[in-house]
Design a protein that fits this description.
Blueprint lengths: L2 E2 L17 E2 L9 E4 L4 E5 L2 E5 L7 E5 L6 E8 L7 E9 L4 E6 L5 E6 L4 E8 L10 E4 L3 E2 L21 E8 L2 E6 L2 E7 L7 E6 L10 E11 L3
Antiparallel strand pairs: 1-9, 2-18, 3-6, 4-5, 5-18, 6-17, 7-14, 7-18, 8-11, 8-17, 9-10, 11-12, 12-13, 14-15, 15-16
Length: about 230
């Protein structure tokens, strides 16, 4: 597993009124959002945001124009195509230019990881099909990658929280260094990490390589409650 050595970032903390819900999606337009990292397609249909995979597109993210620090984020998601892996970024950043991260590998050797300009990186809550058992786990997109303690254990109640062919309710709680994810009322991840203290929210359509099938994922009822510690 790659372990972060040292990273230094600047953050902007954007808050609404503490304790009040803010709708991030108005149900009709993509106002307040922009696409980054790839060229998958996003549209509004029947009060939902629909993400559609595109052949040879990198991972793509529909990102909020605002950043948030401590908050509760809720949304519902439906994998129309269970073959399509997806996720939602939180406390994440968009690279303004090419960046290089340095990590130590399992052998303790320093290794660079380079990301291009416009690449989204940071915490991502996993959305995957029921059989995968990983939904609700947290992945460090384009940075430290898979972190075992942030992932549901195989065969656990948490690994079975997500359901195929139905809307699934997610809740993400970020308070200081405390991060907690809940899927359909089941706590999946609960850990401490302070690499990011604020950032954007982003809806992911995953890279599907050369597959031309227009796999789809849908989100609705996306809202956030800013918090104070």
């Amino acid at each position: 597993m790659l372990i972060a050595l040292l990273l230094s970032f600047g953050f902007v903390n954007s808050r609404g009124q503490d304790g009040e819900w803010i709708n991030l999606f108005d149900g009709e337009t993509l106002d307040g959002w922009s696409v980054h990292s790839g060229f998958a397609k996003y549209r509004v249909e029947d009060g939902t945001i629909v993400g559609t995979a595109v052949k040879r597109s990198p991972n793509t993210f529909l990102c909020t124009d605002r950043e948030f620090g401590d908050f509760i984020l809720e949304f519902e998601v439906l994998l129309v195509s269970p073959e399509l892996n997806s996720g939602v970024q939180f406390r994440s950043m968009i690279a303004e230019k090419e960046m290089v991260f340095w990590f130590r590998n399992d052998q303790g050797q320093l290794e660079p990881r380079t990301i291009p300009a416009d690449r989204v990186y940071g915490y991502q809550v996993e959305i995957a099909n029921e059989s995968g058992g990983s939904s609700g786990g947290v992945y460090d997109e384009a940075r430290r990658a898979f972190m075992t303690p942030w992932w549901p254990k195989e065969g656990s109640k948490a690994s079975r929280a997500f359901k195929d062919k139905q809307w699934n309710k997610y809740r993400i709680e970020c308070r200081g260094s405390s991060i907690r994810t809940i899927v359909n009322g089941v706590v999946v991840a609960d850990f401490m990490d302070s690499l990011n203290e604020s950032g954007i929210i982003g809806l992911q359509v995953h890279d599907v390589g050369n597959n031309s099938t227009p796999y789809e994922v849908r989100w609705r009822n996306i809202r956030i409650m800013p918090l104070s510690l």
